[in-house]
Specification:
Number of strands: 15
Low-confidence stretches: 1-5
Radius of gyration: 42 Å
């Protein structure tokens, strides 16, 4: 349905374009700027934004509703001065190059047979999907203005608003510069892959060529009214006649899921709200006028005047409902041109692809009609230039336009050297290959119902990581179900159990035990926790036992308090000979005799330092309590503890200094 025919600013229809004689002349653009702005025709400039997919088809119903409402707001952003186009480009990639990207290279380590078998499995999984197609999505918008200087600020403003709108949808988007736009159009016009894209802005002046020469196909042949030939590819452009009363959000998805190279294009033009309402009111007036004429005919013919043609009554109700939506339900009127460009290596393959597209349209109660004698205009309208040369438009409201949700499912395919295989996309059956180590949080968790294959998924990832990466793989396996896999990969299986002959030393420690905290303190805490488990069983110490342990830990502080309260400084001279002999033996003679023996025994580093500190340390505080309990001289023990502690400040410093200067610790 064509509501508003295209006209120039002066109200006249535009003149018919001259017949092009070369492929370059067919391309409807005049100049491409380096920043991505394209002058399509005098006074009309466009830009293109590439955007990624998000998970819509697999989302919950409330999430789908939220995405749909946000997409409606996205469409309402465009006013009648902005022309915009949604392009969905599916192009075939070289199958050999794609298989090469998933093939695991041999490493001559005895496991190449496993790598060959794993690569064969990946090729079989690849055949189930359409990873051979590169799918890209673009939004092109254009505005009219007298010069580049005049429209550039507005183009920048619109671009920033669109990027923010994409961000609210959770969609990653990127504006294309001039070279990227040329590369995109080159790929669309050279789908046979025979011509590679080579372009440099510096070469334009020297070569005397234009940007069209860098993107134009080798030849364009429009030999009949229904197909055309573009290089080594046959193509046909059709338009979608939307005749269904209710549209489904599966329509666009079904087109994009076709396993062939194609371009789906939606040219969307917003209609000024006042103009749209005025036009619909005029239509309602015309319908009422026709209704009155029918009633007059009924009176003259002598039958009931309330009997009206069904089409007239239906159109009247629909027009009034549409007027109500525009006036009170935040709806706008859009003119939509829906084009589908199918391709094939041969004419038969092309017809098969067109037949499949026609079947999809019929499934949704629509009709896909070939553009007879307009194949060239249809092809050029499919380019991301926001320039529609097909004057076939369908009026739709915002919600009806938004039903063509441009999101299906997000593909996860990373062609890196250490990417691992995780399965197939539930919607598209494409390979899911990701290198988790590139993420901010590379940790993973496998969830699933009993019997769904969680253990198999873990074993597959372990095997894949072993074959592809140099990562260390450590498996904690209480059920011993991974032992056969580890043995097949020539790994080490350590059995930890009460009856096992393999043990773990809980006191083992090294310099890498902790990155930030004190490793000795951490090991001490671990040993204390281990002792609690040993003494108290799997539940640890009971509250009463912990209380007794805490009281026992107060022994040393308690002894210091008692020692400080019982010592008498006036009696230090009473044990002169005995005291100083004991101090000399503990603080001087023992270190001088035993430390050299330890050095001769071969101890060095931390072990020697620990032994030296042990030999030069003062008398233990608990010796005072022991002397009193055994009926010995507690006063002498107290004085010995005090004096050796004072002497150890000097003796331990000298001991460590000497060993350090001799490079023994």
């Amino acid at each position: 349905m064509k509501l508003f025919p295209k006209k120039n600013k002066d109200g006249k229809k535009p003149p018919k374009p001259a017949v092009p004689h070369t492929a370059q002349e067919s391309i409807p653009m005049q100049r491409m700027f380096e920043d991505g702005t394209c002058r399509v025709r005098p006074g009309y400039y466009t830009r293109t934004i590439a955007y990624q997919d998000i998970n819509y088809q697999l989302a919950q119903q409330e999430d789908k509703t939220a995405i749909f409402e946000e997409w409606c707001s996205f469409l309402n952003f465009f006013d009648s001065s902005i022309h915009f186009e949604l392009s969905f480009v599916n192009t075939a990639t070289d199958s050999e190059d794609f298989e090469k990207s998933i093939r695991i290279p041999y490493q001559q380590d005895g496991f190449d047979d496993v790598r060959a078998e794993y690569s064969q499995m990946l090729r079989q999984q690849l055949s189930k999907g359409n990873n051979g197609l590169t799918k890209a999505k673009f939004l092109t918008y254009g505005i009219e203005g007298e010069s580049m200087a005049q429209i550039k600020p507005r183009l920048e403003h619109i671009q920033n608003d669109l990027m923010n709108n994409f961000h609210r949808l959770g969609v990653q988007a990127k504006p294309l510069d001039g070279k990227e736009r040329l590369r995109l159009m080159h790929g669309m016009l050279n789908m046979d892959g025979s011509s590679k894209f080579h372009f440099d802005w510096k070469d334009l002046v020297k070569s005397g060529l234009s940007v069209k020469d860098a993107i134009a196909p080798t030849a364009l042949a429009f030999k009949n009214s229904r197909t055309f030939q573009m290089g080594g590819i046959f193509g046909a452009v059709s338009f979608l006649s939307i005749t269904a009363s209710d549209l489904s959000d599966q329509l666009l998805k079904d087109f994009l899921d076709m396993d062939s190279s194609q371009i789906v294009t939606m040219h969307i033009q917003s209609v000024d709200q006042n103009k749209a309402i005025k036009t619909i009111k005029h239509t309602i007036t015309e319908l009422d006028k026709s209704k009155i004429e029918e009633q007059k005919k009924a009176v003259r013919a002598g039958y009931d005047m309330d009997i009206l043609p069904s089409d007239l009554a239906t159109y009247g109700r629909d027009a009034k409902a549409l007027l109500k939506e525009l006036q009170s339900q935040n709806e706008r009127m859009f003119l939509v041109t829906f084009l589908v460009l199918n391709t094939g290596r041969t004419e038969q393959e092309l017809e098969n692809n067109v037949f499949q597209a026609v079947s999809i349209a019929q499934k949704h109660n629509c009709e896909l009609c070939r553009l007879d004698f307009q194949q060239e205009q249809g092809l050029m309208s499919s380019l991301p230039l926001a320039d529609c040369q097909i004057e076939i438009q369908r009026g739709l409201t915002t919600s009806s336009t938004a039903i063509f949700v441009p999101f299906t499912t997000q593909e996860l395919f990373d062609g890196g050297k250490e990417s691992l295989y995780y399965g197939l996309n539930a919607l598209s059956n494409n390979l899911i290959m990701v290198d988790r180590k590139k993420l901010k949080n590379p940790n993973g968790l496998i969830l699933g119902t009993p019997g769904s294959g969680k253990s198999f998924a873990a074993k597959r990832e372990i095997c894949n990581a072993f074959l592809v990466t140099d990562d260390d793989i450590i498996i904690a396996d209480p059920e011993a179900e991974y032992a056969p896999l580890v043995e097949r990969l020539h790994g080490q299986v350590i059995h930890i159990s009460p009856a096992s002959t393999q043990y773990i030393n809980p006191l083992d420690i090294n310099s890498n035990y902790s990155e930030e905290d004190n490793p000795l303190a951490l090991k001490a805490d671990f040993v204390l926790s281990l002792c609690e488990l040993i003494v108290g069983g799997k539940e640890g110490l009971q509250p009463v036992e912990k209380t007794v342990s805490d009281i026992g830990g107060m022994a040393t502080p308690y002894c210091l308090i008692v020692l400080g309260g019982s010592i008498h400084l006036s009696r230090f001279g009473d044990y002169g000979r005995s005291l100083w002999l004991a101090v000399l033996g503990k603080s001087v003679i023992i270190p001088l005799v035993f430390i050299p023996l330890v050095v001769l025994a071969g101890f060095r580093g931390d072990a020697l330092a620990a032994l030296a500190v042990m030999l030069a340390c003062p008398t233990a505080v608990s010796g005072y309590t022991l002397a009193n309990q055994c009926g010995a001289d507690g006063e002498l023990a107290a004085q010995l503890i005090v004096v050796t502690t004072l002497f150890s400040v000097v003796t331990m410093f000298l001991t460590i200094w000497v060993l350090t200067s001799m490079a023994l610790i």
